[in-house]
Amino acid sequence: MEFHLRGTIDVLNRRSMALIALVTTFAGVALVIDRPKGTILEWFAFPLLVIGGSIFAWAVWPRTESRIDNRPSIAKRLLHLLTWNGRLVPYFPGFGAAVLLMDLGYNLILSSPTALQTEDIIVILGAATLLSYGLVPERFARERDFVLLFFLWLNVILVAPLLIARAYYANFEASVDVYSWVALAPEAGAVLSLLGVANSVHAVAGSTAPGMTFVPQHLAVQVTVVITTSCSGIYSFGIFASAFLAFVLTEYERMTQRVWMLLGLGLMTSYLANVLRMVVIVLIGYYTDTAQTDLQNMLIAHSYAGWIIFLAWIALFWGIVFRFFETPVRKENEVKPVIPRNRGVLCGICAKSLTPILPGYRCRCGKFYHVACATTVGECPRCHRQMQLPQTTTESGA
Q: Per residue in 333-353, pLDDT tens?
């Protein structure tokens, strides 16, 4: 019983630390990609990345010698397809170096100014992932695939649309403000109207971004907020969406109806959180700014509120997801070998089918293993719980 309790506490501690690491790391990523310039927050990006990465490494590092995870996840199948059955993986460092050179060439030849912008940082992070992919031990394949898919999705969501728009308009200085026009300004304006804040969304001369005009309570003049791409919160949405897509692809073996529902819920609520961010910024300016403050309260909220709301949303959503996937802890006398009723259930270690002749063991996370395979490892490769086999339970209770 003591052994079982100690294993359960260790799993819960590691999951809690993984959540803390996730929030800390993404705080650093958000500051790197969408840093609030001119504020002290931008200097916390590197320390947050180091601290978050260190905590995450501690949380996932195996306590005992672990086997390679042969789970046929969606991520493995997708990467296997994209890399031509794995033939392109050895060339990842070359691809990463080529991406770096192309980004530098783009900045020197086509872009002005030549300084690295947000999109350049996203591309460089993706290239660094390709360069280091082969250096990660195979036992951390799931974490390695998660990071690679995260930066690939980040480039697909945030960089590719910008390049396509610039090529289409033959203007390499243009920004993509379609998101602000279609999915942010009208929705935020509608919410503000429901809250009693009269406003209007309209075009602004000299800008491709929409403007939102309202009159603060303590000011007698109209205020127009121009919602550009950098101010729209699209970067925060892109970070969350990329991470969530990578999480789903690496944690699931197939896209079931439940997985599609979870994916849709995550993306929709992330979008709603971004609309809330815009609403909060305007409300702060509407209710608190005066002639003396001269919209400084709204500007401060613009610099800090978005980042804080983003972190609060990350912590809340991922905490719920971690809790949702946490199955109730069984009583010790309920832990016993099981034979799955459905055919085609695969062992999470050897990836071979479980049959009545080869009985299986079901971990509390729901993963099945051959009893013989489970006895060769000290913990579940998926959730890192201690394997509570019948003979182990008998020994601990003696």
A: 344 444 444 456 788 888 777
